[in-house]
Design brief:
Length: about 1250
Amino acid sequence: MTSNGSANGKSQSRLGMVRGFSSSASNVVTGTFGVATGAVSGTVGMVGSVAGKAVDVATFGQLKSERTPPPPDSRWDMHREPEPAKEVYEEKAPKKKLRRAIGAWIDNVEEEYADEDLRDRVTFLEYYLKDKFFGDWYHNSAVIFITSFVSWLIARLGGGLIWIVVVMAFASTYYRTSIIRVRHRVRDDLTRESALVKLETDAETMEWLNSFLVKFWAIYLPTLNATVIETTNQVLSGVKTPSPIDSLALKRFTLGTKPPRIDLVRTYPKTEEDVIVMDWGFSFIPNDTEDLTSRQLKNKINPLVELQVRVGKGVVSAGMPILVQDMAFRGLMQVKLKLITSFPHIQTVSLSLLGAPYFDFVLKPIGGETFGFDVNFLPGLESFIKSMVNDNIGPMLYDPNTFTLNIQQMLAGASADASIGVLAVTIYSARRLNGGDMLGNTVDPYVKISLNGREELARTTIKRDTSTPRWNETKIILVRSLTDALTMEVLDFNDVRKDRSLGTVTFPLEALEACPEKENVIGKIINNGKERGEVVFDARFFPTLAGQTLEDGTVEPPPQLNTGIVRFTLHQAKDLELAAKKGFSGGLNPFAVYSVDGKDVHTTTVMKRTNSPVWDEAHEVLVTNKQRTTLLFTIKDSRDISGSSTIATYKVKLDEIIAQNEKGNDWFKLSPAGRARISAEFKPVAVKGIAGSSGYVRPIGVLRFHFYKATDLRNPKTVGKVDPYVRVMVNNYNKNRTVTIHGELNPEWDEVVYGTVTAPNEKVVLEVMDAESGSKDASLGEIVLNAESFVKKNELGEYVEFIDPATRSGQLVMPGRAPKGMLYYNVSFFPCLNIMDAEEIEEEQKAKDQAAAAAASAAPSQDNNQKDEKKTVKETVNGVKPDATAAAKPVDAEGKVVAPAKLKLSPEELFNYDSGLLVYKIIEGNFARSDLFVQFFFDDFLCPDYITGGKSHGGKPRFDEVGDALIRELEWSKMHIRLTSKQRSLRDDEDGVVASMTGSTLAHLKQGFNQPATINFVSKNPGEMYTLKVSFRYIPVVMTLDPFESHNNQGFITVKVVDATNLPAADRRGKSDPYCVFELNGVKTYKTKVIKKTVNPVWGELFEAPVPRLSSAKFAVKVYDWDMGPAEDDFLGASPIDLSHLEPLKTDTQILNLDGKSGQLRLEIRFKPEYVMRTIRGTATLSATFAVPGRVVTSVAGVPMKGVGVVASGVGKGASFLRHGFKSKDKDKSSLADDDTSSILSGAAHSSKSGG
């Protein structure tokens, strides 16, 4: 606006003058008036020039004011009294990043252009014409042209001078209005820019607020004093005091009659859109009486704090007052507000002191008010006390450290100190450590981890005599705010002297807000401003998961996870005297110890002389198995000379206490007597890829989704079509997906996938996605379901099988857009068998051992129960569903129906179930390389069932991760594990794979059932060894199998092309050069060699082809006569090949009649059942499009039990062997293998020679 305004003004002036003089060529009148109007327009242009110069002057004045700092204010000297030093702003105010000074106000602008009367009047033209019609050069040029044209027209029509006066009146009005509008713009711009500059450089006073505080303080002070005394005494009652001090109590407290002051506020406007930053200067100087009236001086009360220290015991005790008087405080604090769109619109408030504040006080530890002596007069004591205060407050409040309040969390009912997530810090190594001892120059380093340099939260192990230590250790830290800074202090351990700090690495947690995972971070070790080495680490943040409020007002519950943060609070206890140890009289000195799974995690303060203590102390801890976590609260008495004696205890499962709290029950009976009020809260956290975070929530069953097709899909692409697939999301977690169909708006999948559910109220989303090779997959729409629609229970409270009777269809919906596309699918639910796991069996056995006598007396009834239990298992095994009306319902003593007990099955009984969930825990590995992912595949699936959360580090990585997979037929299932450097890769993508293994799922289950088993891998690089330690569990699933999902309905066919007879002759000599082409589902599979000059060819060739679905496979052969040259080969005949009657591992000879003139073709076919890996349909390479989640459930199913006959109805005419059922044993397989297969195998050697 500065230089541009000047240039624009000059150009307008010249343009107006030139155009004004050029218009005089018409006639004398027009010429004269043109000169006048040109001068008018030129004057308007000059106004713009002057405005530009005014802005130049303003900017120069501002730049000059920036170079000349304002005079110092003695009130803000924080370090020296009474003479002020350099002002604190220059040293302590935060640096402004890329802020610029724009404009300023100068007095001569107002003096030069002041014209109040002119600005206040509103003319007719000014009223109807808007601001946009004034000031620009083309507007002025238009006025000149119109005025000249009108003058010329008046002269041509013979008009007189009166008409010229009228035209000039219009022109002068436009000129006057333009001047006013331009002046208004200049003034507004200068005022606005000057205000912005002053907002940054100048401080605003808050006298209006101080005036309010003076009147409000006198009313609020008594309440404040009483509240402080009551709260402080409650805290002091639990403080452990050294002998001979018996107790501490706050007897008097007052802050005086003079209130604190807000001296200044400075605002920084050039921040992010959702951030407000202000500097607040505040002071509390009660002894400054210059601004007090005579009445205020008469009623003035000075600040006073009296702490009474009681020395001695019982009657032989006395109270000694310690006085603190005349407190004074002055500081400069930066306040940072983070805004959000939802209520309360302020997410966090961060406070930070910009430098050490000034404070003063009078301390009289002895003598009281009359004879007390101020200890600050002792040399060195005052500075020592102030340094101690700064050392304690600095890590919490002094810049760059901040104290943050999460307003949103507090208003939502959460505590201010509640954790918002889990920080996993993996420290790999350090290098170039400096600062060893002078003699040996060696260090024994370890790392101490904290937040903002406060209390220690974790530490690594000590590495002896090395300056390049390697730890590879992961530490879990609970985070309350992402505004904190992670502090890693590297120390040198010493057995004798105090450990010496080698330096500190600081990492701001704000960096994890945009990207929650930071890998291979190199942190500089800084000590006294110098670099002392580097630390290599990872930082990963996992936020707590909360329920969401939907648009219709319903609250969606958080996901059902077994890993999370538990916050438990022992509020108070009562009636402890009933459980107190005999021999003690009077009140107890109780304190409590919190324990989680047998480990002490927190100890409360000691409450003195009370039998009804109130603690209200909360503690948070990360638990990895919510269902197994046990809490123990132990209340002890500190008066016992021999040691703290236990008064009462309370032990409870975490799930049980949460359930009781949800019902409104928070009082619990202690053992042996007493009551306690306890509350617990669990916040799930999706922690993955971290050792020790392997919490697994046992599913209640699986949902079966049969996706048939989709029609009229949305096509957001301008070129080409979408590559759709369907993914299943359960509570916002990706569970499974179909294969991708390339370039199709009406895809047909006809594919079954499964997803586990852990609770009936979970939300299920079926989302159609467009696979993208170079970017994130895009959504084409979704359908939202509720699992409660399919998860059903019987009268006993057991989950039962639900089979959807019809095909469903739903519109695909996208937020903010009209629905487009239809998805056709089917949903069924199959429950998990309610069995006892290994831990429950072990707990039951312990209980039985403790009550051996009672169990022996009830032996007959137990035997009967075991028989009934086995009978129930057998009925389930055989697939027989007992009549619900005839079955005996278990009841309690009051006759109420209760849920039946869990089944206790042996491993052999478990393995009889062909369908079930295979739960595997990846414990640790022994790898020749690092930076590898572990992928699990099962049976015929292209996508990984599970991928470890992060890359392996070091040769022996620790995982402790849990996954599960639905196995359809355990006896035939195959498990494929591989180690790869690419996390998101498919099974057919071998790029990055360094080692793999394939084996029987049942064999590995038996080997690692409830115990670690070592799996060996086959490496692609000779000499490299890879092993993985895994343990397995198995949960049977009661389900009905659709026969086309069986492994017997897929596999490989081996075809021997034997010979042909009586083929048509294609040449003049009555001969042909025949060859055969085989097609499977419309795709060419194999071509035989050409047999020349014969109508009875003999091939004897052997080939193998995979058949994904035997029952619906379309297999055909075509016979051609080979012709030399570019002409097409002559067609001799074709025939479909019937695969419906093939039996596993048996050779079937077929003689096909060709549909040509004549001829027969003889084939020998054998079918081998085996899982065939699914493939992408289409030609696109989409290896990067499969956004595989960390946990995907296999999309296959299984039969209920071995030996169960399954009728193959609904399969069609294919797969007739399915009618025999899936009951083949090892004996059956051996008999099949012993069949005569010499005829089909005899052509193998010939096939290898003849080729294709």
